[in-house]
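Entry:
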Amino acid sequence: MKIRSRILTRVVAWAFVTSFKLLFSTLRKEFVVLNNDWDLDAYDVNVKGRYLYCTWHDTIAMPLFLGQSEHMAAIVSQHQDGTYLAEAMRYLRIMPVRGSSRRGAVKALREALTAAETHHITVTPDGPRGPRRKMKDGIIYIASKSGRPIVPMTADCERCWKIKGDWTDLVIPKPFSRVKLILHPPIHVPDNLDRHQIEAYTQQIQDAMDQAYDVAEHRRAA
C-alpha cells in the first residue's frame, strides 16, 4: 500500500509540475529588484551569494515556476499536502526540507542550517496554518545562526484564480497574464539575539514584505 501511495504521489506531483510549467510558459514576466542588485537572482546559476528568500504562502506558486531556481532548498510542512509539494519540488530540482513550526520544527531547522551552507532557502513564514501574511520568527532564527541574509520577496499578477484554502488562498496566474516578482534588499540578522531583538527583526521583515507588496500593487495599477 505504501508503495502504491508513493507512486500515486509522484504521479500527481509530475502532473502538477508539467501543467504548471505549460501555464507559466505563457506568462509575461517582470523581475524587480528594489536596489538593482541582480546578485539576488536565484534563477542565475552564477549568482555568488546564498540567501533566505521570504515569501507568502498564497503566492508560492509564482517564484517556484517563474524560472529554474538554482541551488535552492525550501521548507515544506509534514502534512500530506506538503508531501505532494515536496515531490513537485524534486521535479523542479529544489531540495525539500520537511518540517514546520508545528511538526518537526527542530529537525527542519537543523536541516535548514545544513542546507544554507550551499543552497538558497525559500521560507513561507506565515505557514503552515496562518494567520495569512503574518510573520513568524523561524526565518529570523535561521538567518541568525546561518549568517545568510533574508530577501523579502513577493509576487503579483494582473489576472489570476484563487483556490480557497482553510486559512489562505493559493494564487494561480491566468494564461497570458503579466506576473511580477519583487525582491527587497537583503536584511542581515546578527547572531545571539534576545527575545526583544527577535521580535524587532520579525517586524522589520514584516514591514519589508508589506513594502514589496505595495510596490507590486502600484505597478499593477500603473
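Residues 41 and 47 are 7 Å apart (CA to CA).
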